[in-house]
Structure formats: C-alpha cells, structure tokens
Design brief:
The complex is a heterodimer.
Chain A: E1 3-5, E2 10-14, E3 19-21, E4 24-26, E5 31-38, E6 44-50, E7 56-58, E8 64-68, E9 73-78, E10 87-95, E11 104-105, E12 109-114
Parallel strand pairs in A: 2-12
Antiparallel strand pairs in A: 1-4, 3-9, 5-6, 5-10, 7-8, 8-9, 10-11, 10-12
Chain B: E1 5-7, E2 10-13, E3 19-24, E4 31-38, E5 42-50, E6 53-56, E7 65-71, E8 74-79, E9 88-95, E10 105-106, E11 110-114
Classes of the chains: A mainly beta, B mainly beta.
C-alpha cells in the first residue's frame, strides 16, 4: 500500500524567509511524487512532480522540491516566501510498480506567511 | 481548455433530499475521479472511472452515494437521501490515459451543506 505523511499541520514563516513544507512517503516500488496547492474556496492546483532524473525539481511560482530516496522524503521549498503563498499544500504519491494506481494524498499543511 | 468544470459551486439542501453534483472533465482525459474533502478526514477518494467505466468505488461511504459517467464528457455524483454528515467539499478531477506519471487536474469543487 502507498501512503504519504505530512508531519506539520501548519507552517509559519515571515515574508522573505525561506520555507520548507515536509513530506514523507511509502511505496513498494518507485514513487511518482506530486505537490498541489489549494487556495481558499478553490480546487487543488498542480505545482510540480518528480518522476525520474534530477532529484531537485522546479515548479510553478518559484517552488521546488527535493526527492531523497534514502529518507523517502519529498520536501517542498521556496527560497523567499511571499504573503500570497499562504495556502494549503498537499503532497501526493503514486506507486510506479502498481500498474495504474490512484494518487494518495497527505492530510495537507497550511502555510501561513506573515508580512 | 477551461479545465475541469463542476456544478453547482455551492449547494444547500435539507436532510433527506436528493443531491446531484456534476462534473465535466478535461477533453481527452480518460480518467475521472471524485474526491471529498472535510476538515476531519482530509481528502478522500470516493470513486474513479476509466473510459466511463467505474474501476474502484471502495471509497464510496454508503449505498446512499452513487456515481455515473454516461459519456466521456460528463459525470454525476448523487447522494440520496442526504444527511448532515455529508456536508463537505466534493471535487472532481481528471487525468490522461494510464500513464502513472501524469498529474490529475481538479475542478473548483462543490461545497455541499446539508441542514
């Protein structure tokens, strides 16, 4: 079975500071990893994904994520946070060895960026 | 493409009434997913379709819930009879054929309130 853990319900950061939102995963095969963002009263928007290759992937709005196989982690990062980054962030995983399997989402982490 | 379109955006209904939520996936996508989001349980997969055929409905909470996909461009999620505990935001998402490395695209959601 595949699973995702987002250990922090909320992350607080001051504008201009770097941010990290943590995600760890568990799959039986190789993982396909995704980050989504949800703004208030909106659907989930795709940010970035890791499939293969370079462990550091870059996505929308200046976000990036680093895949670490030994630590089974895929943390979301941004060098300089903006107040407008405040939103709910979801990490998701799909097992590449399970034929077509659905995305499994974490519970989400609320990011609050203060001015 | 306008993306995944859901209607209505908001629905308020009385307990015991039938509720129908609608979804139009992105043209050409052959996977369609229904999710439910609540504060307590996060994002839950209810059911998903491939080429209009239901593949896994193990997430459907009760027989009161049913979903159909009569054609490639339309799906419904029906709750009959509705109960207050069904109050949640319901999302529809779609993705491209079988490739496990593809992301899902979400609609704006339907916020259901059962009073």
């Amino acid at each position: 079975a595949q699973s995702v853990a987002q250990p922090e319900d909320q992350v607080n950061v001051a504008e201009g500071n770097p941010l990290t939102v943590k995600c760890t995963y568990s799959v039986s095969g190789n993982p396909y990893l995704f980050w989504y963002v949800q703004y208030p009263n909106r659907g989930l928007q795709f940010l970035l994904k890791y499939i293969t290759g370079d462990n550091l992937v870059k996505g929308s709005y200046g976000f990036e994520a680093e895949f670490n196989k030994s630590q089974t982690s895929f943390h979301l990062k941004k060098p300089s946070a903006l107040v407008s980054d405040s939103a709910l962030y979801f990490c998701a995983v799909r097992d590449s060895n399970s034929g077509y399997s659905t995305l499994t989402f974490g519970k989400g982490t609320m990011l609050l960026v203060s001015p | 493409d306008a993306g995944v379109i859901q209607s209505p955006r908001h629905e308020v209904t009385e307990m015991g009434q039938e509720v129908t939520l609608r979804c139009k996936p992105i043209s050409g996508h052959d996977y369609l997913f229904w999710y439910r989001q609540t504060m307590m349980r996060g994002l839950e997969l209810l059911i998903y379709f491939n080429n209009n055929v239901p593949i896994d409905d193990s997430g459907m909470p009760e027989d009161r819930f049913s979903a159909k996909m009569p054609n490639a461009s339309f799906s419904t999620l029906k709750i009959q009879p509705s109960e207050p505990r069904d109050s949640a935001v319901y999302f529809c998402a779609s993705s491209l054929t079988g490739a496990t490395n593809t992301e899902a695209f979400f609609g704006q959601g339907t916020r259901l309130t059962v009073v």
